[in-house]
Amino acid sequence: KDLIRLDFGKSFFSGLPVRDELANRFPNTLMLAFFCVSFSVVVGIPIGIRCALKADQLTDRVWLFITLLCNSMPGFWLALMLVNWLSAGLKILPLYGITGAPFADWQYYVIPVISNSVVGISMIARQCRVDVLEVIRADYVTTARAKGVSNHNTTFKHIMPNALIPLITSLGSTFATSLGGTVVTESIFVIPGIGLYMTNAIGRLDYPAVRGGVVMLAVAFSFVMLAVDLIYAFVDPRIKAQYEGK
User: Fold this and answer.
1) If both were cysteines, with which of 56, 117, 136, 222 could 36 make a disulfide (CB 3.0 to 4.6 Å apart)?
2) Global pTM?
3) What is the mean pLDDT of the chain?
């Protein structure tokens, strides 16, 4: 009953209600995850399309190797390397922390977003490549090309709208990866979110805080997956056709 009301008790360390502390930190975590997913989509989809259109060519093989390397790269290692290069070395970005509103202090999000989006970019790029290749081999694309439709129109009017629909389901996994990665990312860059709160709570054996953080992240992930499924059902004409007239 307490968990249903999101009443996790009081923190052993601060003595404050865990629910209130999570509510204060959740916007930072959600904003970081949103930036990571957006960056993954903006970068990953063009890479996947490029690889599919140049399938089995040098460009395709190079990008597949890069995405495989990114998928295997530890996010915390990349974060430390970027901090050493961009912050400590070139001194063009701040080391850590958030001093104000996320959009006002965008420079504080650059390195955390890049380091936390590497896996998501590789996942979306490889999935997009598979989806585009599947659509390219479809009969209606072959028919469009046989009728003399230009490559530009074939790509953007026939291939892209149908290839990107299955990619919607991958956004849920990308968000889960970004949301889970915030635990490490927030700890490295001292971002006052749920991840940093949970990390500190684990070190202090603050069990109510740890339990509250896990439940909060699970609830957020569940709502995101529900939203993704609803969007997919709304966008996919095959699913919409099943319920027309009912």
Assistant:
1) 117
2) 0.81
3) 81
